[in-house]
Amino acid sequence: MRQIALTLLLIIFSSYSLAQYDGDDVYDPFADYSEFEEDSQEEADINFFRNGRFFNVGLLFGGRMFTGGMAEFVEASPSPGLALTYFFNLRLALQFSYTYSQHLLGPIPDPANSSTVDGNVGMSSIAFDLKYYFNTNNVTRGLADLNPYILGGFSQNTRSFSLVDQTIVAKDDGAGIDLGFGIEIPVARNEMFIGAQFTYTYVNFATENQPWTQNPNNYLDGDIMQLYLIFGFNFL
Length: 236
What we know:
Elements: H1 2-24, H2 29-51, E1 55-66, H3 68-73, E2 77-78, E3 81-87, E4 92-110, E5 115-133, H4 141-144, E6 149-163, E7 169-187, E8 192-203, E9 224-235
Antiparallel strand pairs: 1-2, 1-3, 1-9, 3-4, 4-5, 5-6, 6-7, 7-8, 8-9
C-alpha cells in the first residue's frame, strides 16, 4: 500500500510541474507588440538624428502682389524677409517669418476734385505657419531631393499709407489665414538648402470697405500673394 501511495504522489507532482511549466511558456502577443513599438520608435529617433534638422534660418527674396482693389491701385513690389523654422520631427515643422515691402499707390481717380490720389504703401507681415513635408521615400531620386511641403497658419498684416502732398500717414491692420506650398533642395551635405515657396493670404483689413475718393468703386480690398526664393542654413 505504501508503494502504491508513493507512486500516486509522484504522478500528481509530475503533472503539476508540467502544467506549471507550460503556463510560464505561453506566448504573449502584447509583450511582443510592445517590443516592436519600442524598436520602431528607436529607429525613427535614429533616423531623425541622422537625417533630420532641429531648426533652420532662411533668407527670403521675392515679391508681393495683391488681388481685388489693391491689385488695381497698388503695384507689385519686391518683398525681402527672414524665416525661422523649428522641426518637431522629419515631417512637421513650425515656421515664423517676417516680410516687408514698399509699393506705389495710385493713381486713384478722384472725380470730385478733378485729380488723382498718389502715394506709397508699406506692407509688413508676421506669420506663424505649420509646414508638413511629404514622404518621398517611394518616389524617384530626382523628385525625392525636392523635399516638397505644404503650409498653413495665421499672419498679422500691417499696411501704412503716405500720400503725395500730405504729411499724415494712415495705418490699418488685418489678420490673415495663410495657405501655401514649397520645395527645399539640400546642398553642402545638408548644411544649407535652396527653396521656393508660394503663399496666399486671405486677409480682411479694417478700412478695406471704405472708398478712398468720391467714387464708390475705389476700394483697397483684396488678398495677398507672395512668391519667394529661399536661401537657408540648417542646424542639425
